[in-house]
């Protein structure tokens, strides 16, 4: 990284006035345990805050422009995939792109906006591995709040040094290349933009995106919605897939098994799982039972490792 540029005139003045303030406040600084209404923060300059953020964000953009795996969508399936992949392969550079400000997709609540999250066995083993407590009800388990699952898996994912999450960032397109093996096309990365920009393309022209190159993209963009099923829709638009079969009605008995067993590389370079897969394959939805999403994420991670190791 190049050395920081010298301070501007304005910064030097601000430093001086802050130093004066520092000297004054230092006298009143007290240890945490003795705090009685005299809480005093360590000094900071406005530009230090700006630079602390921009330098890291810039470094991250520079580094992740070439990633090993890009995960699209940080819902229950995408986050579980990131956790499983980063746990198994700490050397991989894994970049997660999430359109929303808050990662987690639909997994902040269980169903009909209620708190509890139902996970059918045997996917409760994934909860055990991640470290999410649950109540055992026989064939299924219940996490007392879906947010407990999402916040726990998210905290683990974010702590991996090899994982970068860009939230408020949307995948706007896929990168494709001729596939040297098959003769058709393969996915070779994603095209991204800040979500607010993506939402405003109709208002301004030429707000061009940027790219992340990766040999493998794992897409968990969820079922159809404002952003949902993004990658599989794009596969149709690019002619890599003929048509979407569209998500079918709810069948809790069969839907989860189908999603897990069919989580796969749907075209070269793109693995799809979670509810996005139901739009591609015409599979049933399962409603508010999440074991299929967790196991689909783990299955995708296993498929990714096989492909990257081949
Ligand atoms: O914001 C989306 C959400 O957080 C994100 N996303 C979608 N398109 C994107 C794009 N770029 C970046 N173009 C994008 N991010 O993807 C996430 C999808 O999360 P989700 O919770 O909607 O999907 P999931 O497959 O992980 O979990 C589905 C949970 C469901 S839906 C359902 C039913 O309807 O029956 N049942 C279950 C368990």
CATH architecture classification name: 3-Layer(bba) Sandwich
Count of helical stretches: 10
Quick one: how many beta strands? Answer: 14
Quote the CATH topology. Answer: FAD/NAD(P)-binding domain
What is the assembly state of the chains in this entry?
A: single chain
Specify the biggest β-sheet. 6 strands, mixed
State mean pLDDT (0 to 100 scale). 92
Span from first to last CA?
35 Å
Helix content: 25-40%
Overall radius of gyration: 23 Å
Low-confidence stretches: none
Short summary:
With 310 residues, the protein is α/β, with parallel strands linked by helices. Helices cover 38% and strands 21% of the residues.
């Amino acid at each position: 990284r190049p050395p920081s540029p010298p301070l501007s005139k304005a910064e030097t003045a601000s430093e001086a006035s802050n130093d004066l303030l520092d000297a004054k406040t230092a006298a009143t600084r007290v240890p945490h345990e003795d705090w009685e209404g005299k809480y005093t923060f360590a000094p900071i300059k406005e530009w230090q805050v700006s630079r602390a953020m921009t330098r890291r964000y810039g470094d991250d953009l520079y580094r992740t422009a070439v990633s090993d795996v890009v995960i699209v969508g940080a819902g229950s399936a995408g986050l579980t995939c990131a956790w499983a992949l980063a746990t198994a392969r700490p050397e991989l550079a894994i970049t997660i792109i999430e359109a929303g400000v808050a990662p987690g997709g639909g997994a902040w609540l269980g169903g009909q906006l209620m708190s509890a999250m139902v996970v059918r066995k045997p996917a409760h083993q994934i909860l055990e591995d991640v470290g999410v407590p649950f109540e055992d009800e026989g064939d299924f388990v219940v996490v007392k709040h879906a947010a407990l699952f999402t916040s726990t898996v998210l905290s683990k994912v974010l702590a991996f040094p090899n994982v970068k999450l860009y939230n408020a960032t949307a995948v706007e397109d896929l990168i494709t290349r001729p596939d040297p093996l098959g003769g058709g096309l393969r996915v070779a990365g994603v095209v991204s933009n800040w979500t607010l920009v993506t939402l405003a393309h109709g208002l301004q022209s030429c707000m061009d995106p940027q790219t992340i190159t990766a040999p493998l993209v794992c897409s968990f963009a969820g079922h159809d919605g404002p952003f949902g099923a993004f990658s599989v829709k794009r596969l149709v638009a690019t002619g890599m897939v003929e048509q979407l079969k569209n998500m079918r009605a709810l069948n809790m008995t069969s839907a989860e098994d189908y999603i897990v067993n069919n989580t796969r590389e749907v075209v070269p370079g793109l693995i799809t799982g979670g509810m996005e897969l139901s739009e591609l394959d015409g599979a049933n939805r399962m409603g508010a039972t999440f074991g299929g999403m967790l196991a689909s994420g783990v299955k995708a991670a296993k498929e990714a490792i096989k492909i990257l190791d081949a």
